[in-house]
């Protein structure tokens, strides 16, 4: 691919992705073409002496790709873009100017680790970041707070954090976290209650409407009494273990007789 073609595709991607309502399908197509061009130009995995401006542009393309992946709800794609960016964030950090997108991307990766319950990786990643980022950067503070609230069981704070997300893409992972939290709360409700009013069950599960709760109830095979506005929790019958009393008594007597003979 000729350099001018690469430049044209890059300009088109920046224009489309920064639009109010970007065409995600078109962005994906442009990213695919750009990655081919970057490979051909030796910029996808740069080695040796490489033009500084080319490195900056390549980094920006990959960062846009990471954000596009979240908007397209493609987590594996985000993982690949994040992995590819590590070369630019680590190996070329001494020669490249700081990227305004670096902490937002790293913050997204931290929340991704939380959604996958990879707590050890989460803390290892935190340790690799500058100390001032942990205390002052909103893109890093947000996932740090989420992890603390999850460990405390402060699920209402996790839910509130959705509206306080420093970037729109963060809400995708917070929603994923809330899905996990809802299932945990639902399991507790099934154990603790026979039934609950629809309004109370919806509040406990952080649903804004009864319709959302009803859809969730169907997924868990709960019964919803619309007339009485009640959710009935379906429980599996506890297995009853029959105790063979007569056999136990006979065995005990035989054991007693054997003890007498020994004495």
Automatic annotation (TrEMBL):
GO cellular component: cytosol; nucleus; proteasome regulatory particle, lid subcomplex
Keyword entries, A-Z: Proteasome
PROSITE patterns with a match to the protein in the record: PCI
Protein name (Swiss-Prot/TrEMBL): PCI domain-containing protein
PANTHER family per the UniProt record, alphabetical: 26S PROTEASOME NON-ATPASE REGULATORY SUBUNIT 8 (PTHR12387)
UniProt-listed Pfam families: CSN8_PSD8_EIF3K
Entry keyword Metal-binding: no
Domain of life the protein comes from: Eukaryota
GO biological process, one term: proteasome-mediated ubiquitin-dependent protein catabolic process
Organism from which the protein derives: Hydnum rufescens UP504
Gene3D superfamilies from the UniProt entry: 1.25.40.990
Spans through the membrane: none
Family classification: Belongs to the proteasome subunit S14 family.
């Amino acid at each position: 691919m000729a350099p001018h073609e690469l430049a044209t595709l890059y300009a088109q991607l920046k224009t489309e992705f920064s639009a109010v309502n970007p065409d995600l399908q078109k962005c994906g197509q442009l990213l695919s073409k750009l990655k081919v061009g970057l490979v051909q130009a030796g910029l996808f995995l740069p080695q040796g002496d490489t033009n500084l401006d080319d490195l900056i542009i390549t980094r920006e393309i990959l960062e846009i790709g990471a954000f596009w992946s979240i908007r397209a709800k493609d987590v594996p794609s985000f993982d690949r873009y994040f992995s590819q960016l590590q070369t630019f964030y680590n190996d070329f950090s001494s020669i490249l100017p700081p990227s305004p997108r670096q902490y937002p991307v790293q913050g997204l990766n931290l929340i991704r680790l939380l959604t996958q319950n990879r707590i050890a990786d989460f803390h290892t990643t935190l340790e690799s970041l500058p100390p001032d980022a942990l205390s002052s950067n909103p893109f890093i503070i947000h996932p740090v707070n989420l992890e603390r609230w999850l460990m405390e069981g402060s699920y209402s704070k996790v839910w509130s954090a959705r509206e306080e997300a420093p970037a729109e893409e963060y809400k995708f992972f917070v929603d994923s976290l809330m899905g996990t939290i809802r299932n945990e709360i639902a399991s507790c409700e099934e154990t603790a209650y026979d039934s609950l009013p629809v309004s109370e069950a919806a509040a406990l599960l952080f649903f804004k409407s009864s319709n959302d709760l009803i859809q969730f109830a169907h997924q868990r095979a709960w019964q919803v009494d619309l007339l009485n506005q009640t959710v009935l929790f379906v429980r599996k019958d506890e297995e009853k273990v029959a105790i063979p009393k007569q056999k136990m008594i006979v065995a005990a007597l035989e054991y007693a007789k054997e003890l007498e003979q020994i004495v």
